[in-house]
Amino acid sequence: MMSKNELLEMFDEWLKDTGPSALIIREYLMPVEGHDGVVFPATFAASQDNVFKGGYNIDELSDGRNVCLIDSVGSQANRVEPLFEKNEYRCLVPQIVVKAGEKQQVNLLDAGHRAGDAIVRCSELKQKLQEAFKEALNGNAEPLAKIAPTSLVFGVWDSRDTQAKLPRLISSTIRAFDVCKLTRSAQYVPAMEYVNEGLLEKPADKKTQDAYAERGFVHQPATGSHGGVIATGGIRRDASLHLAALRLLSAGEDEAKTLALHRYVLGLALIAFTAQPIGYLRQGCNLVLNPDKKREIKKVFSDGRREDVTLTHADAIDYAKAAAEAFSIGPDRDVMFVKELAKQEVIGGKRSRAEKTV
Fold it and tell me: What share of the chain is helix, strand, coil (3-state, %, to 5)?
């Protein structure tokens, strides 16, 4: 069994400038129904210029093949980050809970924009977060790590205030290759013929007809809608942990504090990086590991060398716990959402837009 010092030093070579640029995971997945099962990718709204018509994001390659986005970088991050609310991991990060009104409360780990989200920016933590972001701009990420360390792991942009921007250390994407796009059709049949039975008047115009359809009083066909895809070229999750970006973080000029910060953030990143990915992404998209292809974990150096890495989730947990203790994580906090701060932001935003138009 390793001592605490041995645990802390386990990955120090990765934190040196001569260390690897990144760790990468390549994981092969398949639908629970089998290799030829139908998968429902994410759907997206049409672009403002209407170049992208909306629906599935399928890119056609020059050789005739295609690649379909199953789950985006942002979506993957938002699925993994709440992991740190679970009992096994919650001791590793401050649990910041914002209370709004009498019953509503939101853990910062569930907020889409992390430390830059309106829910926490308009709370009693506003000033401390603002100071932490300003420190980060000046080269000291330690204050932010004491409040919202996962914002350093998954990236954050304080776009509504200080403009501080910290890149994602972890990126993960699921894609399907060589997909055949399917469509589906359905027919809604009402419980009875409301018009024929005299229970409703015959619709006199399209507006009334549409209202009947919306409320389920008439037959309603749905044809040619998205029916999923079959990935004839397989499904793959590619994840990267950017150690080169991690090494750019610092705790000011203090080398000992910077090393403690690096170890702590690396521990959290390794937990997120090695966690078993969530298989159920949405209705019609439940993915499992492909038993025919082994998961790959490699470290990649700046000169292009790629070397195999033996790294388990249990290793990551042991290291992260030791690093968190040495770093001395920030306290848990329950804070209130402040309506006046939200009102001030809205007024300030209106003024800002008005100034731009002058």
Answer: 35, 30, 35
